[in-house]
Amino acid sequence: MPHSAPNLYASIAAHAWTIAPNLLQRALKRAAPPAQAWSTTLDDAQAGTISIHGELRREADHKRCLLVVHGLGGSIDRHYCIEAAHAAQRAGISCLRIGLRGADRRGEDFYHAGLVADVAAALASPALATVEQLYVLGYSLGGHVTLRYALGPTDSRVRAVAAVCAPLDLDLGAQLIDQTKSTIYRQHVLDGLNEIYDAVALRRSVPTPIERVKRARSMREWDSLTVVPRYGFGSVANYYASMSAGPRLHELCVPSLLVQSTVDPMVPPWTYERHLQKPLPMLEVKRLNSGGHVAFPHVSLDTTMPPASLADQILRWFAQH
């Protein structure tokens, strides 16, 4: 057998784990545990008052709550958000799945990779006023936003955070997704982002006409036309450099867990490993040699834990903090 064969098989399996769960969720429409519609507002200097929406399931005592943050172009109904909600129910803690600004396609605004105001507003919302212990779990870009939030200052009730398949270096992440081999993934992400941007354009003025934005063929081009002018970064290079969590992981102020797949086709190790080579006292890193992007078979993050869904494993890790 050729030496490269295992890598080829691992690559095929990783693509399958990345694509199949999303397709299955669309086909089967697995529901989250029963929850109530939730919303809160925050003030933005440019966009004015913005509403953040989601779904909140309250458990009996409502003293502990998990906040779940979706990935780029995603929503609260993605398969990984649904699984996290079920894991929270099994663990007996409340769960709030939030949509970052614009994810609900209501056209109020659109988010970027380092915007933590939405997470902060959700945690400070009246619906969580009686919660004593908060945990934040973010996936993909939502994982990056979660780590950015954990750089502080944070809500004093936040006990720990976790990020799954987070793109720690925005510049290298854009380089990867803009490669020809990533065309399918890139187009999937751009389709979702264009829906968000289109909804905003129908409601208020936007930095670049939607017709021009829809012609963007790379993540870097899309960001330069939208995020950069909207948030005043000046250039896409400055946006990526100033917002990337990777170089600042030593500043994390709460216990943090980072779960990455070594075979992730969307966030491969070469895009983030250099940021994990220095002492990071508040960060625990788990590298899994299975799964794909934000989807995994039953795993064990610790030799003392039997295999279970990744969300269940993360909730057990949270319980230790």
Task: Write up what this structure looks like.
36% of the residues lie in helices and 18% in strands. Helix 2 links the parallel strand 3 (64-69) and strand 4. The protein has 321 residues and is of the alpha/beta class. The model is unreliable at 1-6 (pLDDT under 50). Strands 1-2-4-3-5-6-7-8 form an eight-stranded mixed beta sheet, sandwiched between helices. The chain has a single domain (5-169, 244-319), classed as 3-Layer(aba) Sandwich (Rossmann fold). The chain has eleven helices and eight strands.
Largest sheet: 8 strands, mixed
The CATH homologous superfamily is called: Alpha/Beta hydrolase fold, catalytic domain
In the CATH hierarchy, the third-tier topology is known as Rossmann fold
Major sheet: order of its strands? 1-2-4-3-5-6-7-8
Task: Determine the structural class based on helices, strands and strand pairing.
Answer: alpha/beta
Overall geometric form: globular
Residue stretches low in confidence (pLDDT < 50, at least 5 long) are 1-6
Kindly report how far apart the N and C termini lie.
Answer: 46 Å
Beta strands, count: 8
Radius of gyration: 19 Å
CATH class: Alpha Beta
- Overall pLDDT level: 94
| Quaternary assembly | single chain
Strand content of the residues, in percent?
15-25%
Give structural attributes.
Rossmann fold, globular, alpha/beta, 36% helix, 18% strand, 321 residues
Outline the fold blueprint.
Layout: H1 5-28, E1 36-44, E2 48-57, E3 64-69, H2 79-91, E4 94-99, H3 117-123, E5 133-139, H4 141-149, E6 158-164, H5 170-177, H6 183-203, H7 210-213, H8 219-225, H9 227-231, H10 236-243, E7 256-261, E8 283-288, H11 310-319
Parallel strand pairs: 3-4, 3-5, 5-6, 6-7, 7-8
Antiparallel strand pairs: 1-2, 2-4
Helix pairs in contact: 2-11
